[in-house]
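To: structure subgroup
Subject: Chain for Friday's discussion

All,

I'm putting the inputs and outputs inline so they're searchable in the archive.
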Amino acid sequence: MTDSEIKIKSSIDNSPEEIVVEMQHLKKSFGNNDVLKDINLCIKKRENLVILGQSGTGKSVLIKCIVGLIEIDNGKLIIFGKDVSELKQKELIKIYRRIGFLFQSGALYDSMSVRENLEFPLRRQIDSMKKEELDILIQEALHEVGLDEAIDKTPSELSGGMRKRLGLARTLILRPEIMLYDEPTTGLDPITSKEISNLIIAVQEKYHTSSIIITHDIECARLTANRIIVLKDGVCAAEGSFEELEKSTYPWIRSFFE
């Protein structure tokens, strides 16, 4: 058996009614670079799925395909039971509004205050909202991530960990059903990284989100994952719980946990 054929059977039940995202033989290339060669995976309701892999294996490309930032070349991408290739633009927008994306950089607007950063997605997607309702949503979102006192500050006045929290608050304010996290703990110290990991768990528990977490941080993976998939050579090469993969007899899998 070659490394690319390794498969650790997951104990997760993947009943059709429980699946919120499914990829079938999904492919994505950039020129002659075949990044995603044959991706087959699914994520179920209320599950935290962590994706591991070396740099350049297409982890971020994979989640950008889900949120519509990158168009797939071949295969199927099914979200909430619908093949996105068969949907019209209006239907796609409705799908994407149910998905939250926490970018690695946070994607904050430094020229706006914390309050204005949170108002921005609401003003674009929610019509006829009263100021009182808007204020309540903003205050609740900041409270959820522990930034109550930062409402009138700018992102440049916040620490790296606080900026991550603000990015998460701005995403959560729209109450997404699926959360996509792109390297949520990159550049943070171990204590702050653990706080962000615990926040991801809290979001899952409170809002019953299904999440995909891209990370190089093995402690983040240990804390947050219900299931882990390892990408290699453009395919999902290994799958299982943290404990199953950590005990793998294959050196390249164990290397992620050392």
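Points worth raising on Friday:
The radius of gyration is 19 Å.
The chain has a mean pLDDT of 87.

D.
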